[in-house]
Design goal:
With about 350 residues, this protein is α/β, with parallel strands linked by helices. It has two domains: about 220 residues, P-loop containing nucleotide triphosphate hydrolases (Rossmann fold, 3-Layer(aba) Sandwich), CATH 3.40.50; about 40 residues. About 50% of the residues lie in helices and about 10% in strands. The chain has 16 helices and seven strands. Helix 10 packs across helix 12, helix 14 packs across helix 16 and helix 15 packs across helix 16.
Length: about 350
């Protein structure tokens, strides 16, 4: 099983073509720990992807136990980038309030277009809403990510909220388990890269010792304004086979269709290149993908990604149980459920 503990995360693995990424990794590792260095880098890439002229963009759903720096890393990102590149939505809003504050603006500070929407506490956001309000909010954000606009209409009013955005939402493991089905059933999470992490005792101790470190990273607005992601779109074609290979791996790990993960992989490659002020892809961008792999394993779904991989390799349900050291009479029902869902989601395809 792939875990965060067996991955070597080191900025030295990246070349001088990715100096900004190396600085980000170094800063988060020094102040927090290696696991959170990748979290910080991913959040920077999500902010960057909101600037893209075309989709796909990179949206993140960050899942971790309570009090493990999900909100604090948001604050770090807000120190790195100018406020013109993100909107801090806090933890308690509705799709109507979002429209009232940002829907009437076309440009400028009050527009959501080409900005990253940062949701500090998805647990609070979802738990504080009535079901109808929560469903409308989830659907509205999903449509923004998919179509770049949300259309609302009832007997009293009709309005449109427009904006090409990326989203970062933080959630606790407990809240994720409670809301998982609702978030998946309306394809909300299909549009996100869902990232899981869990810090150990040494990680917490490291932060307590080094928490006085201050952020020394800030991006130059003039440099960001010159980035042209459409130049990278042409470059993606040169790496088609390699991207497909990563997309398939991400599909098994994240338990979603390869078509969805292909968009996410492209967004990761482009945003990492742009973050490092490049108009071309480099080996470093694929090393960045390797860093992310351990964070795709769902901490709430035991062996799910291994079962999918074995089933794809042609193993029977009984053989899968045996390879996992499980009693087939009791474990085969779980294996069957995982495989059935994988087929319904287009993860396991007919060959």
């Amino acid at each position: 099983m792939e875990t965060q503990n067996n991955l070597i995360i080191d900025e030295k693995n990246l070349s001088d073509k990715s100096k900004n990424s190396k600085s980000i990794l170094r800063y988060f590792e020094k102040k927090y720990c290696k696991s959170l260095s990748v979290i910080g880098l991913l959040k920077c890439c999500s902010v960057m992807s909101a600037l893209f002229k075309d989709k796909p963009r990179l949206s993140l759903c960050m899942i971790a136990p309570t009090r493990q720096f999900k909100s604090r890393t948001n604050e770090e990102i807000k120190n790195i980038f100018s406020p013109k590149y993100f909107i801090d939505l806090g933890s308690d809003f509705t799709i109507h309030s979002l429209y009232q504050q940002y829907g009437k603006a076309k440009t400028g500070k009050m527009s959501i277009n080409k900005r990253c929407l940062m949701i500090n506490d998805g647990t609070l956001l979802l738990s504080s809403k009535a079901k109808k309000t929560k469903d409308r909010l989830i659907n509205g954000l999903a449509e923004l990510l998919s179509e770049g606009q949300y259309l609302y209409s009832d007997n009293l009013s009709a309005w449109t909220l427009k904006g090409e955005v990326s989203i970062i939402i933080n959630m606790t493991l407990e809240s994720y388990c409670r809301n998982k089905n609702d978030l998946l059933n309306n394809t909300f999470l299909e549009r996100f890269l869902t990232v899981y992490y869990e810090l150990g005792e040494k990680d917490i101790e490291n932060f307590l010792i080094n928490k006085r470190a201050r952020c020394m990273i800030h991006y130059d607005d003039k440099k960001l304004a010159k980035l042209k992601d459409y130049e990278l779109n042409e470059d993606l074609g040169k790496y088609g086979e390699k991207i497909t290979k990563y997309s398939k791996k991400f599909s098994f790990l994240s338990y979603r269709s390869i078509l969805g993960t292909h968009d996410i992989v492209e967004a990761l490659l482009k945003s990492h290149a742009c973050l490092n002020e490049r108009h071309f892809l480099h080996d470093d961008d694929f090393k960045f993908l390797d860093m992310i792999v351990p964070y795709l394993i769902d901490l709430t779904a035991t062996n799910q990604h291994i079962i999918v991989r074995m089933a794809n390799n042609g193993l029977s349900q009984k053989e899968i149980c045996e390879n996992l050291g499980k009693d087939s009479t009791t474990y085969q029902s779980y294996v069957s459920k995982v495989i059935k869902t994988a087929k319904l989601r287009g993860i396991l395809l007919h060959k």
